[in-house]
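Just curious: can you write a single protein's sequence together with how it folds?
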Amino acid sequence: MEYSFFTLSLLVGTGFIAGIINTLAGGGSNLTLPALMVMGMPADIANATNRVGVFLQNVAAIAGFRKAKKLDNSDILPVVMPSLLGGIIGAFIASYAPVSWLKPMLLSAMIGMTLLMIIRPALVAPPEGTVPFKVSDKPSAWLALFVAGIYGGFVQAGVGFILIAALAGTLRYDLVRTNALKMVCTFGFTLLALMVFIWNDQILWMPGLILAIGTMLGSHLAVKMAVKANPNHLKWFLFVMTVCGSLAALIS
């Protein structure tokens, strides 16, 4: 595979924008997956290769949220475990399931989140000062995180919205801490998915690492934006991204 200035710019540029979108909301893979497929990758190889950028983007975001003191260690393990269990299942499905399954799952996630934001916007943007629940107090949250893990292990695009629905909607975290925990969950099941994809030799490392340069830069900037942003602005950014994600899934 040849790397022209255009392809390098495409990967870094789309990665940068996707890093911002994924950190503040979700759906950045709606940009990066088509960019990888434009280079001639089959959908399954693009899906696997995309995880390299997502994984390293998560590393950058987690470091940023930790530095800003928006990520509490006591919250991590209870939230991550169900998503990891789901991620293992989803990654194996992704390696062996027909590629035709990707679009219906992506479309369902995007439209579902958009409707949720329209019908019950407060559900995914709790009022400031709301005290979060523990996972042990909300069995529905465990199930929601498990399902998010399955989806995230299967196809990355749009998983951020499902995690936001679980973390903000069910456990009632504010959007900044929701995004911080979302990146930890995504880190976990993306790592598991990468292992499965590496085992099946489905990753093209060079474009994946080039893409990761952009996603890490975008994620680093997005953390700074998230910490300083007005919560209401974050809510509207999330809504716009759900609508854009739905349209992208419909026309792709």
